[in-house]
Amino acid sequence: MTSPSAPTVRENGTGTPLVLLHAFPLPARMWEVQLERVPGPAGDDARVIAPDQRGFGAAPLGDRPPSLDTAADDLAALLDRLGLERAVLGGLSMGGYVAMAFARRHPERLAGLVLADTKATTDTDAARANRERVAAAVLERGSVDLLIEERMAENLLAPGTDPELTDAVRNMIAEADPAAVAWAQRAMAARPDSLDELAALDVPAAVIVGELDTVTPLSEARMMAEALSDAELTVIPAVGHLSALEAPETFTAAVRALLKRVK
Ligand code: MLT
For the CA atoms of 176, 219, 246, 18, what is the dihedral angle to 10 degrees? Predict the structure, then answer.
């Protein structure tokens, strides 16, 4: 459970603004290591900003219908509030879908892009039906217990992951609000293909993927890297879907390398 005073946006460092968008159904706290390390030893290489997205962590869900466009517009409103015209955006999995929706709706505000363990293609019919099943079930039960079991069984983390990290991920999933889980599932199910938008971008990009990611596999990462005009692909060995948590050092190094390419 989040306390009423928990921040909805975490921030650290000064320098190039970098907004990190968390995965489903985790809160912004998943970026703890990147918040600390991406700004670099003197803390002035990047201003890292990690918001809880609509309904997750301490952020209210509100009453808008499910749509990743709404999540992307939330982000534009956040940049306005922070007085930022442009920022580098980084998203892992669902965070990547939101970053691609932002690229479609607000391309002029994008200074660079990190797409981690995510995909630009749409869901299959079976995946869409499964999302609706999960959405209906968590709402009916008023609990995300089913999601915890199913997500962990999907090999979110590579085999042999430190049990402490596995527990931390379970605990983060357990904090998710069933209404936010249903909202996000329905929003993700409706997302369009983003390969054309990626091809139209002319900003530096980093595509990062865990070698053992079975949720959004290497083939999807390759497709995004090929569509983008200026992308570097980092494949992190022996790591699953939550690469930022499983291999924080390598992930952070890839993000810092991208920041050096951003003008
Ligand atoms: C995520 O980690 O954000 C999810 O796996 C995204 C999805 O369900 O497609």
Answer: -70
